[in-house]
Amino acid sequence: MLKHLHDVVVAGGGPAGLAVALGCAQAGLDVVVCEKRPGVIDKACGEGLMPGAVRALGALGVDPPGHPIQGITYRQGSTVARAAFRTGSGRGVRRTALHSALRCAVERHGVPMLTSPIRTFSQHSDHIRAEGLRARYLVAADGLHSTVRELAGLTKVNTACSTWVPRWGLRRHYALAPFTDTVEVTWASQSEAYVTPVGPNTIGVAILSSVRGGFTQQLSAFPDLSARIADAEPISSVRGAGPFRQHASSRVAGRVLLVGDAAGYVDALTGEGLAVSLVTAAELVRCIRLDRPADYERAWKRTSRRSRWLTEALLWSRRQPSLAQRIVPAAAKNPWLFALAVNQLAR
């Protein structure tokens, strides 16, 4: 007797994978999630949800607790640029709180959560077999260094840019009342520090850098920020992620579809990764419902284009010595332009 045929198997139980699973369940599809890590998963993350991400979660019926975010602030020395969101508030949300809210919603819909990773799979004309499961589609939501993407032959080695420099991220939380209602980004010569209010008495500090080093070492590049949090108690361990840039040759290979970081990633510089993951997850579910997986590649490119282009442009400027020190002064001198860029990402 043939084993039960699911509509979708999702490899990876992070926010992107859970968003796909929840969307599939709400659409009446038979979906199962495979994630080797049980329970709530933490991850290095800036934890600032753009207004678009808050709306995308709301469309799924998910409303995680957090702290309102009204915009983005850039700092470099005494120079400050601030842009307010025009399309509603964002939200600072602990990664664990976000994951818990999504996981609870998925469980309420009766979606099975299996603690077994997808290590192998085989494609057939009308289904996929993976770790004893049969499904019409396999969704790879297993992160930056996706195993399924590699197995599907979709991992693309970046040989086009000889000047590419890997970047990593570190994050820690502090028991400190937020001193801003924005995500505050402080720029140093080779790194950026993000301060995100995630609760009434908690902030998250994330540092993105092209130089490897421990959290304390990285924080030393930001003396003003270091002084502000010097007496605050660290309330989480340091978590890291990277290298960020990952290339995929396509988001679709037959009945395999990529979503979230597994679909390809530029950088965390603009803080829009979760928003893009949620929006593209909705497009993926739509394409599966229509049984038109090939349409997803075009949909992914369309919905992520603005974010990819703006992030690439900012990264390129960051790598130019003559331009890097002018980013924040230019934002402060041209607040309308800074606001335009921020709200292009926020919507």
UniProtKB/TrEMBL annotation:
Signal peptide: none annotated. SUPFAM superfamilies: FAD/NAD(P)-binding domain. InterPro entries: FAD-bd, FAD/NAD-bd_sf, Geranylgeranyl_reductase. GO terms for molecular function: FAD binding. Residues 7-157 form the FAD-binding domain. PANTHER family: GERANYLGERANYL DIPHOSPHATE REDUCTASE, POSSIBLE OXIDOREDUCTASE. This is NAD(P)/FAD-dependent oxidoreductase. It comes from Saccharopolyspora karakumensis.
